[in-house]
Amino acid sequence: MKSINNILQVANKELYYQWCSKKIAILLFILLFLSIFHLIGLHNRVITSYNRYQRTEMTYRENGIDIVKALEQPNNVYVENNSKITSNPLKDDFISLAIAIQSLKPRNIISNTLEYLVFVFCTLIFGIYAAYVATYDFRFKTYKFVSVGDNQRDIILGKLLSVIITMTGTMVFVLIFTFIGSFIVNPIVVAKVPVKDFTIDIFNYEYGIIPQLFLSFIVILFYVIVGFSIGFILKSMLIPTIGLLLYGLFIPVLGAYDFRNIISYFSHQVFTFTARFVMFKPMPINEVLGILLTLATAVILFVVLFTVAKKRSAYS
């Protein structure tokens, strides 16, 4: 019980510093900016899709093709050399527009915001932020002062807990903001596009919002653990930051059990990726092995983290 209280006290101090130093505000500003950009992108996607549909419809009419009958015809889609070939362009544009409209609906906005933020930005943002929290005492030469009265384990867990609380709080705030924002953007779209004419019942999530939130939390948490552990072990924010950026943005997927492929595999089980971001199609994996490999990596990082911390004198 005493250890838990110590961890909570450390976390409270860390949160207080992060708040007073405006780091949480900066983090929240970045996420809000990305969510606004996402809402604008969804709006623009509807308008672009509607304009494309109108052009295709006009072409059909000029060629004397009945629009209603054309939309009733099947649409066969082929992908060749990264290009999509469709047998019924009008129906294809109709479906694309309907999906774009549905993506902005409040019932779907949380899901596609998670797709856009978590798998594009948040793994890097929170991984780097965790490295920052793990190392700023080394950077500002305050580690001896911080370590007075607390053992290494409590300090590490308190710092990590503060990152998790910040991660959860900011993401909840941003998702609520985006949900409210959808009620503002939808009337703007309705004023420009006859949305009732483009309704199809194909935009349903099989598992619902709870599994999506859970998976998103686990994915971000994994990157938080990686960034925090490497940062603390090496006493450097620069190394994990460069490593996360290179791994996330430049290095291609290295195989079926590359963590990005594992994440993609499980994300495709609960997300549709029909909005603005499409996760790459993963290579097949053994689900149990994928979970065990991810857990083992987190455990190994923790073992090394606490081993290094135990060997350090006065948190140095």
Overview of this structure, please?
With 316 residues, this protein is an all-alpha fold. It has one domain (2-39, 107-311). The protein has helices at residues 2-20, 23-62, 67-72, 89-103, 106-139, 143-147, 152-192, 209-234, 238-250, 259-270, 287-311; strands at 77-80, 83-86. It has a two-stranded antiparallel sheet. Strand 1 (77-80) and strand 2 (83-86) form a beta hairpin. Helix 1 crosses helix 7 (152-192), helix 5 runs antiparallel to helix 7 (152-192) and helix 8 crosses helix 9. The protein starts with a helix and ends in a 5-residue tail after the last helix.
Gist of the model:
Helices cover 75% and strands 3% of the residues. With 316 residues, the protein is an all-alpha fold. The chain has a two-stranded antiparallel ribbon with strand order 1-2.
